[in-house]
Write a structure and sequence with these properties.
Blueprint: H1 2-20, E1 35-40, E2 46-51, H2 58-71, E3 80-82, H3 86-96
Organism: Helianthus annuus (Common sunflower)
Protein name: Small auxin-up RNA
Pfam family, one: Auxin_inducible
Length: 99
């Protein structure tokens, strides 16, 4: 079951990556190995760099699925975008950092 979630999450990220290559002007090339950039916010999007290990976490996977439902793979930001409040995302990452 865990491998299925991970596989699904990786497919979602790959879909965003393929489409985001068309939006190179929005790319930041300072993402360290083992991390990915995500954009968070309801109106103003703020960029966060998170470890790819989050892809294994059910809470993060839920955000990925919601993002896919809301934005699909044709995202104008050119990357993973979560339309939740920044403080909610910060709380989520604080929880994920305890694992």
């Amino acid at each position: 079951m865990g491998l299925t979630w991970l596989s699904s999450s990786i497919s979602i990220v790959r879909g965003f990556s393929r489409l985001s290559s068309h939006h190179s002007r929005n790319h930041h090339w300072d993402v360290p190995k083992g991390h990915l950039a995500v954009y968070v916010g309801e109106e103003q999007k703020r960029r966060f760099v998170v470890p790819i290990s989050y892809l294994e976490q059910p809470l993060f996977q839920k955000l990925l699925r919601q993002s896919e439902e809301e934005f699909g793979f044709d995202n104008p930001m050119g990357g993973l975008t979560f339309s939740c409040q920044e403080d909610v995302f910060n709380q989520l990452t604080a929880i994920l950092n305890t694992f």
